[in-house]
Design goal:
The chain is α/β, with parallel strands linked by helices and 319 residues long. It has a single domain, classed as Ribokinase (UDP-N-acetylmuramoyl-L-alanine:D-glutamate ligase). The protein contains ten helices and 14 strands. The strands form two sheets. The protein has a ten-stranded mixed sheet with strand order 5-4-1-8-9-10-11-12-13-14, with helices on both faces. Helix 1 crosses helix 8 and helix 8 packs antiparallel against helix 9. The protein is globular, with a radius of gyration of 18 Å. Keywords: Kinase, Transferase. One of its GO terms (molecular function) is kinase activity.
Length: 319
């Protein structure tokens, strides 16, 4: 039995040394990254039993992904693609300070995961799971994955598993209108919604006071819980008729990639451990702050480190 099962694409991230340009570098560092596996890693490192399901090429690259995730305590249950055109998605990340900024280049079209169907995925893994999680990145990757995402969320709901979903809008994958239509088609199958404030505005047209936005989403789509993340302004959650707000915890940022996933992983880990919503917000915020100090997409943290951040800033929660 898994506390949490996540479903989505995991890629290899290729980056030049800091300060070098992709067009000139002679070396690339290799990391593993994907929203849903990032969440699974954070939850596993914080003591929860986490399983990641997906489809991978039956190759050294696919095995690299499995090996990395397992090294962080995540169980992997994948469909292996042995076809001649099987491939793993990659993305190139070039760190850059202002005014240049960080550049991301995707090379993920046609990845094996884009053909994944419910029939070939281990749907039975959801039967005994407490939470099933995926994000808006997954249905953006192909029409097949949009259908599979819908089917998995429905299957999880039918077994009584709590379903959690993060909008996670990516403008390089689809338009706001198409994303919004897909999100709203999935909302009837979702219990817990995570949404960045900017994504709710861009794709759902939900703008204004964050508490009103969160309450509006919960009311209009009958979610159990809505968590609205607000960047440096912290987060807001509505649950069971109550509103909770959480500040961010200060961090010296070394690598911000994966911060949102770390927040989700920390939040879910605390809820699965019996914590209430305000405690989960604090745990998510602390996990996110620690992730910013670590290179790569993954929140390589420990429960003791997260507890220490929360305890040092015990006044960060408002109810």
């Amino acid at each position: 039995m898994s506390d949490i099962v996540t479903f989505g694409e995991t890629m290899l991230r290729l980056s030049p040394p800091r300060g070098e340009r992709l067009e000139r570098t002679s070396e690339l560092g290799v990391r593993t990254g994907g929203a849903e596996s990032n969440v699974a890693v954070a939850a596993a490192r914080l003591g929860r039993d986490a399983t990641w399901i997906s489809k991978l090429p039956d190759s050294a690259l696919g095995r690299r992904i499995v090996s990395e995730l397992r090294s962080h305590g995540v169980r992997t249950d994948v469909a292996w693609d042995g076809s001649d055109d099987a491939r793993l998605g990659t993305y190139y990340l070039e760190h850059g300070g202002e005014p240049r900024g960080t550049e991301v280049i995707y090379d993920r079209a046609g990845a094996s995961v884009t053909t994944a169907t419910p029939a070939e995925l281990p749907v039975g893994t959801l039967d005994d799971a407490s939470v099933c999680y995926t994000s808006g990145i997954t249905p953006a990757l192909s029409p097949t994955l949009a259908e599979t995402t819908d089917a998995l969320l429905r299957a999880a709901r039918e077994t009584g598993t709590t379903t959690a979903f993060d909008l996670n809008y990516r403008g390089k994958l689809w338009s706001p209108m198409k994303a919004g239509e897909c999100y709203e088609s999935l909302f009837p199958h979702i219990d817990l919604l995570f949404a960045a404030e900017r994504d709710a505005a861009t794709c759902l047209g939900r703008e204004g006071d964050p508490i009103e936005v969160a309450n509006g989403l919960l009311r209009d789509f009958d979610f159990e819980t809505v968590v609205l993340t607000r960047g440096d302004s912290g987060s807001v959650a509505v649950h069971d008729g109550e509103v909770y707000e959480q500040d961010v915890y200060d961090a010296e940022t070394f690598d911000p990639i994966g911060t949102g996933d770390a927040f989700v992983g920390g939040f879910l880990a605390k809820r699965l451990d019996g914590g209430d919503v305000p405690d989960a917000l604090a745990y998510g915020a602390a996990t996110a702050s620690l992730k910013r100090t670590v290179d790569g997409d993954l929140a390589v943290v420990t429960p003791a480190e997260v507890d220490a951040v929360v305890e040092r800033s015990a006044g960060g929660i408002s109810r």
